[in-house]
Amino acid sequence: MSDEEKREDGESGVEDIAVTSTTPQPVRPGLTEDEASRRVLDLRHQLEYHNYRYYVQDDPEVTDAEYDALYRELKTLESLYPELITPDSPTQRVSIGNAVSEFPKVVHEVPMLSLSNVFSPQDLAEWNERASKYLDRRYDFTYTVEPKIDGLSVALVYEDGVLVRGATRGDGITGDDITPNLKTIKSIPWKLKYRDGSTDPIPARLEVRGEVYMPISAFDKLNRELAEKGEKLFANPRNSAAGSLRQKDSSITAKRPLNVFIYTLARMEGGPELKTQWEALKFFERLGFRVAPEIKLGEDLDQVVEAVTAWLDRRERLDFEIDGAVIKINEFAVEDKLGFVGRDPRWATAYKFPAREAVTRLTGITWTVRRTGTINPLAILDPVNIGGTTVKSATLFNIDMIERLGLKINDPLLVKRAGDVIPNVVKVMEERRTGEETPVVLPATCPSCGAPTTRRPDESGSNDPKLYCTNDPYDCPSQMRDWIFFFSAVRGVDGMGERIAHRFYDEGLLRNFGDLYYLKREQLLALDRFGERSTDKLLNQIEESKKKPLDNLLMALGIPHVGVKSAEMLANHFHSLANLEAADIDAIAAIKGMGRVAAQSIVKFFANENNRKIVQKIIDAGVRTEDPIEEENGGRKALAGKTFVLTGNLVNYGRKQAEELLKRRGATIGSSVSKNTDYVIAGAEAGSKLTKAQQLGVSILDEEAFTRLVED
Ligand code: IVH
Q: Cα(57) to centroid of ligand 1, in Å?
């Protein structure tokens, strides 16, 4: 076989290549065309295999970076030798064809039908009874139980193992030919081959069907990106999958993270004999198709119901939407006998799960003021039953959401509930508006303290503008209540849940978070529903929280821009709350990794008289505000905040041992010398790090100096 033929043939002949490399190679100039051609085939073979591992098996063998490197090498070779590019090259998946004005129509050789529904084990038994009766009870059968994927069904036609057409369901008889778009979905094979090495013949003609969907995580990400660009959002993953598949320009589809599960054998010529749906599913897998996980074979209806229940339980944890389970009679011979009633097969049915969406009316919005002063909206709804639970409210996240949804009071809303999370508003059902809708008015004053509100970007740096109360937390009850709750939660005082924190504030037991350490047993016992046990438990947690390390206290203070990591750095550097309080902006900003914004925020925090008073109260209560120095003699961590780099060999210390000694004294160990390095410890045979230290003027210590440093 000539190289030319091999190229035409796509993958065959690849196995014959002796010199292959699984690591990407820099493209060597002066490569002969023959060598380039071999490498191109080899790379395609590898990429195709990794695609399969990644997209079909969800079990990649290489990292994304490794995949990208192989891909880039192929791209480079193809640009150097354009004559080697074939339409089936993985590089051609991204942007196949250009904008088409409208999709050509295709008539499905086998119509794409729908499914009847059942909603209970009782309905299922009746469906089964009808099927048995139809067959005069002459057949025994088993069932497959598959997830009912909430996406779009598609039909894929392969001729001699090559994907020749992909179409939508359309009206079931005629669909749209969307081959270029479907070809961008990486888990749809372009060329079939047995993944188990079997030499069985590839069917001369094969039509399979399945569901294209967008993973929930990808849908969330896509909507976030669309929101940032101010574009219209998709209502749900199904819509976004549909929108992505209907793109006229397949390069847009290529950018959308679509995926597919194959579940139906529509037609086959020249393949192995398949007698059951179960065999068909296994056959799909062998051929490299992606098949849904956890498909069960049920011997009787009890087993079927068990498998359906398992899917219902699993539903919240999946990264794809399902709206039920599909039950199919497994034996094809029985299916053929059963045939169809109207558009629904008698041999299959959909066991539908309770809906998670419902339409209801927005009766109002309540505004909650949080610790940082943000005022967040909560949608108050006409109570509605969604999947067995009465839903009365839904999150709106922030004011941006109100604008994005175009929300008005009295609006009919599509509300979605998933798992235990607070339901959210999917969209306004504009076509159901009655004309009685009124605009949402953002509160001009804080609902808690009455101070004017202001609108500005979020403190955390996210782009969403938020509504803020302009008052200090000391003058705004809601902010302080939430601060008390936040402080208690960070300090590990679990007994002080949100409701209790608010109640204690409202009843005057706590006016600020510092009061937490002054709660009296008698005060608590005097409260309704506070018995001895819960009182002692709470007081015990508060007492325990006093012992927590300094970084936890810093975190709990809730200083804007001080998170877990920076609290840790501050504690390591300053060792005590008093030291931090005394520090100025420059001293704080000088700590590696601390920004100026955070430094300013810290100084501002301690400049506030009220904050200082509370900090003093906390200290007076005997709360740990210093990190004890873990040295025998009780001295300070002498090397705190200093970065050391070690190079060469020390005579009396091993490398690890030397590092450990430095770390125990608070030092940080760096791996390379930079201007941020404070000292370089240079042993015998020190190399380039020593030279670098000399160039940068970093202090260099020899073993003797090191010994003095760590032994003192
Ligand atoms: S089999 C004769 N299996 O549900 C129809 N359909 O309501 C055979 N669907 O149009 C369809 N997951 O889009 C089948 N595992 C699955 C499915 C599934 C989702 C969709 C499909 C179909 C609709 C029927």
A: 22
Tally of CA atoms within 13 A in the half-sphere of 614 that contains its CB: 23
Kindly state whether residues 207 and 336 are assigned to the same domain.
yes
Active site amino acids: 148
- Number of domains into which the chain is organized: 6
Pocket flag, ligand 1, residue 500 (CB < 6 Å):
no
Structural domain containing residue 540: 473-545
Among 326, 341, 346, 353, which residue has the most ligand 1 atoms within 8 Å of its CB, making it the best to mutate?
A: 326
C-alpha span between 567 and 559 (Å, rounded): 10
Q: What angle do CA 356, 223, 72 make, to 5 degrees?
A: 125
pLDDT given for residue 634 in this prediction: 46
DSSP 588: H
Residue 388 shares a structural domain with residue 437: yes
Residues 116 and 194 in one domain: yes
CB of 115 closer than 6 angstroms to any ligand 1 atom: yes
Same domain as 371, residue 320? no
Question: Confidence band (pLDDT; 50, 70, 90) for 442?
Answer: very high
Q: 647-691 pLDDT, tens per residue?
A: 988 888 888 888 888 887 878 888 888 888 899 999 888 888 888
Mean pLDDT of the chain: 87
* Interatomic CA distance for residues 542 and 494, integer angstroms: 9
Alpha carbons 494 and 302: distance in angstroms, whole number: 43
Can you give the CATH number for the domain in which 452 is found? 2.40.50.140
Among candidate residues 32, 30, 31, 37, the one with its CA nearest the CA of residue 3:
37
Let me know if residue 465 belongs to a domain. no
- Give the residue, 606 or 404, on which the prediction is more confident: 606
Rounded to whole angstroms, the Cα distance separating 216 from 322 reads 11
Q: What is the mean pLDDT of residues 366-382?
A: 94
pLDDT reading at 227 higher than 80 = no
CA-closest candidate to residue 472, choices 346, 333, 614, 362: 614
In a domain, 626, yes or no: no
Q: How far is the CA of 223 from the centre of ligand 1 (A)?
A: 26
Q: Does residue 113 line the site of ligand 1, with CB under 6 A?
A: yes
- What was the pLDDT predicted at 99? 35
682 plus 697 within the same structural domain: yes
Q: For residue 350, give the ligand 1 atom closest to its CA.
A: 7
**Ligand 1 in reach of 350 Cβ (< 6 A):** yes
The count of C-alpha atoms lying within 13 angstroms of the C-alpha of 330, restricted to the half-sphere facing its C-beta, is 20
In a domain, 92, yes or no: yes
End of a domain among 59, 75, 99? 99
| pLDDT tens track for 467-520 | 999 999 999 999 999 999 999 999 999 999 999 999 999 999 999 999 999 999
Q: Which 3 state secondary structure label does DSSP give 22?
A: coil
What is residue 29's predicted lDDT score, i.e. its pLDDT? 67
What CATH number corresponds to the domain at position 705? 3.40.50.10190
Residue 459 is predicted with a pLDDT of 63
Do 524 and 578 sit in the same domain of this protein? Answer: no
Last residue of a domain, one of 324, 352, 380: 352
Residue 129 Cα distances to 125, 312, 338, 528, 663, angstroms:
6, 24, 12, 59, 75
Q: Is the CB of 552 under 6 A from ligand 1?
A: no
Residue 560 belongs to domain with CATH number: 1.10.150.20
The strand ranges marked E within 354-400 are 357-369, 375-386, 389-395
Mean pLDDT of 280-291: 96
Q: Which residue, judged by its Cα, is nearest atom 16 of ligand 1?
A: 148
Domain shared by 563 and 685, yes or no? no
Say what the pLDDT of residue 60 is. 66
Q: Is 636 among the domain residues?
A: no
| Residue 155 CB less than 6 A away from ligand 1 | no
The pLDDT of residue 564 is 79
Is the pLDDT score of 294 beyond 60? yes
Q: Which atom of ligand 1 lies at the shortest distance from residue 114's CA?
A: 24
348 band by pLDDT with thresholds 50, 70 and 90: very high
One domain for residues 171 and 284: yes
